[in-house]
């Protein structure tokens, strides 16, 4: 039984699914009022076009919210500090933006007196979970409408048919209908030929944030990144605000074919899916941050942090950004970052990130301890007793 709603706030991207959704909501929920909300998280969209198109499709008004700064400082940077990579590869570009968007949607829904929030996520994907858990975190009683779980449209082809039958303008065609998600951190591509994992992606045709390694320059690009408290603060010696910093690294990385990932991942709902991700700046930042931690974190902290990162990234991927466990993990991570200060030198070359040196005022590396040359502070004879004690359980087992 459908809920009775008078005013709906719709997460609106201006793409196929949400453009169709405005008309569908009005048809199926007693001509309810639809207010659109578009989050500017750094995607290369024409927001004036999106604004006009939402009204043309039947929305009573549209909010276009600039969430870029908050996305970086409150979601992306914490994930970088934690080393959060889902299945050790995916840099969580889509997953990091969803809880922020959901939080802002609830705020607007309350402001507008909406009795429902709608989204255009499919019933097969992860985003439905991320949005709805985010919404329920701030309003557990809010009615949530997910048209893909209700309507008779069963494919994107049928969504095109619906749009054409209702004269809904679309920014894409059937032939270019990759499912994409873009923000300041990444761009994902799914669908069409990418649904066959035996086929090589046509990188020259689909890449938008940069070029393939084959097309990258034959000369390496040197860069430096400065960190304070685990956060990047400067590129090539120049202090940059978070938005400009990510944009700069995206440009440098994209031009050198950095951060391209062809991944078959395990979705939360249980199936495997294949996508191509572009995360040029993110790949550089993760690499540089990990390199600096090698120098500044003690062994046990570093090793435990690497174990924690797997669970941390899984929580984010599964839509549990606001969970007590993720927040507790973040507290641990952030405590470790007080010593993650310094400069990392890198070279970008045809898809490769090459280490070129790292320095830190909090370095735990001591050349006088690690040297192969003569030193006066390490007694190598001490190692004999250490090895005997370390191997005592083995000795007891072998001699029994």
From TrEMBL:
It catalyses: L-citrulline + L-aspartate + ATP = 2-(N(omega)-L-arginino)succinate + AMP + diphosphate + H(+). ATP binds at residues 11-19, 39, 120. Pathway: Amino-acid biosynthesis; L-arginine biosynthesis; L-arginine from L-ornithine and carbamoyl phosphate: step 2/3. It is found in: Cytoplasm. GO terms for molecular function: argininosuccinate synthase activity; ATP binding. Its main location: cytoplasm. GO terms for biological process: argininosuccinate metabolic process; L-arginine biosynthetic process; urea cycle. L-citrulline binds at residues 90, 126, 130, 179, 188, 265, 277. SUPFAM superfamilies: Adenine nucleotide alpha hydrolases-like, Argininosuccinate synthetase, C-terminal domain. Pfam families: Arginosuc_syn_C, Arginosuc_synth. One of its GO terms (cellular component) is cytoplasm. NCBIfam families: argG, PRK00509.1. Homotetramer. Belongs to the argininosuccinate synthase family. Type 1 subfamily. This is Argininosuccinate synthase. It comes from Aerococcus urinae. The lineage of its organism: Bacteria, Bacillati, Bacillota, Bacilli, Lactobacillales.
